Amino acid sequence: MSLGGILTSQPAGQVTSQPSVEGMFQQILQAVQKSHIEIADLRQECAELRLANASLERQIRDGLQYGFSRGGTPGFMTPAPPSPQLRAAKLSPFLSHSIPSLAVTSPDTPYRPSPLGDNAPIAYPFGHRDIPGFYVVIPAGGAGTRLWPLSREGYPKFLLDLTLKGRSLIQATWDRLLPLSSASRTTIVAGPAHINTIREQLPELLHNNLICEPGPKDSMAAIGLAAAILAKRDPDAVIGSFAADHMISGDDAFLSAVAEAVEVARKDYLVTIGIAPSHPSTGFGYVRLGESLGMKEAPNARLVSSFKEKPDARTAASYIKTGIYRWNAGMFVTKATFLMELLKEYKPDLHDGLQSIAAVWEDEVARQAVLSEIWPSLEKIPIDNAVAEPAAAEGRVAVVPATFGWDDVGDFSSLADLLPAEANQPRILGDNNLVVTEQVAGGIVVPGSGRLITCLGVDDLVIVDMPDTLLVTTRARSQEVKRLVKKARDAGWKHLL
């Protein structure tokens, strides 16, 4: 009997043939080939979906950048302060660009609150934007090493106009907060290297409201010193600390969130403002929302369940999925005296040192002597670790979830997202005529040297061309630029840092 077919007899006398072994193998091979084709099609479809998703995310980011918040200001533009002394930004020594004219808003402009959290728009608690008894503190520190060589130790990022809008980051912060407190109740804490430039950029800043810290001691010492001084000037002062180098879109939503935070702070809470996360970032800390405080004056306020350090990607995604986490933007609002009470409880040595400095602050001669003696011995620690985390464990920290856009401009990748560009084209910070590209997508180019930069067939690059230094990296590795700064310092290039 051959393998070509096997004949079997059926009861009815009919004869049928069963498939041969070769035929069975052929059917199996055909099934396998079909599966391979289907798998290849699925892979192609997945690849196309990934590309479409990336394109959609980019479009959403670009759309949000130029979107208007309800009743707010467009994008990252901030209203100029209603002041006869309003001046345009001092040009950065690292950029060459023209300054657009600034529209001055009227002090009588009505306030239009924005929706916060899950609540409908609430009425602003006062007839105008000024909040009686509220003092703004702007810590202006850090070297911005992730934005080197655009940002330098002597001219850090908060002194730069990073969006070419005509105002540096610290000027935009001043503009944004001035309606709440006025120049008389706005204080800046900065290092000696930046005092003169801050005075040039903010001519309205009162002389006694610019606090010079002899050396960097992190946020707790800077904010604590301002709190100790302001508590002596006004024992009922409520202070709000807002970094000088952050960018915010949706000013009305921001001001409303601060107004709520002030109301909560008057009840003896340390209050932070939680930013609704737009993506599972691994570069920010997180705040876990606790139960509602049930305050009529601040309907969105909740207790802080806990603070979370910068997570890995998987943990960050799990945070976003729960819906009960917010980004920790480092904004704190509290009574000056209450902050000093927390500091006395959790960091008594730091508290005592700051109180000793504040006691003689108004006497410039005595101030310098006490600063020289005490400041070097103060502990260097962030406010989160010093008081916020232990106080949250005891139910003494609250959070106001907010809806405004926020970015700390922590690296060139985040800076690129803030700049306009044509679809799939690199962002350009500076003169567009100095950049010529062909088949280049994404990335950011800073033509700071004045010479022509040409790029061919490279995507998502970071190119920062300054008169004395050239940086080339990728957006994916822009967080690591600070490592180059350290290596350059070790190699003897400190004068370029």
Q: Which secondary-structure class do the elements indicate? A: alpha/beta
Binned, the helix content reads 25-40%
Alpha plus pi helix count: 12
Oligomer: single chain
What would CATH call the class of the largest domain? Alpha Beta
Strand order of the largest sheet: 8-11-9-10-12
Characterize the biggest β-sheet.
5 strands, mixed, barrel
Domain Nucleotidyl transferase: 137-420
Pfam families: ManC_GMP_beta-helix, NTP_transferase
Keywords: Coiled coil, Nucleotidyltransferase, Transferase
Domain MannoseP isomerase/GMP-like beta-helix: 443-487
Top keywords for this entry?
disordered N terminus; alpha/beta; ManC/GMP-like_b-helix; 5-stranded mixed barrel; 4-stranded mixed β-sheet; Spore Coat Polysaccharide Biosynthesis Protein SpsA, Chain A; 19% strand; globular
Any overview of this molecule?
- It is a single chain.
- The protein is an alpha/beta fold.
- The chain folds into three domains: 40 residues; 277 residues, Alpha-Beta Complex (Spore Coat Polysaccharide Biosynthesis Protein SpsA, Chain A); 77 residues, no CATH class.
- It contains twelve helices and 19 strands.
- A five-stranded mixed β-barrel has the order 8-11-9-10-12, surrounded by four helices. Strands 14-16-18-19 form a four-stranded mixed β-sheet. A two-stranded antiparallel ribbon has the order 1-2.
- A hairpin with a 5-residue loop joins strand 1 and strand 2.
- The chain is globular, with a radius of gyration of 29 Å.
- The N terminus is likely disordered.
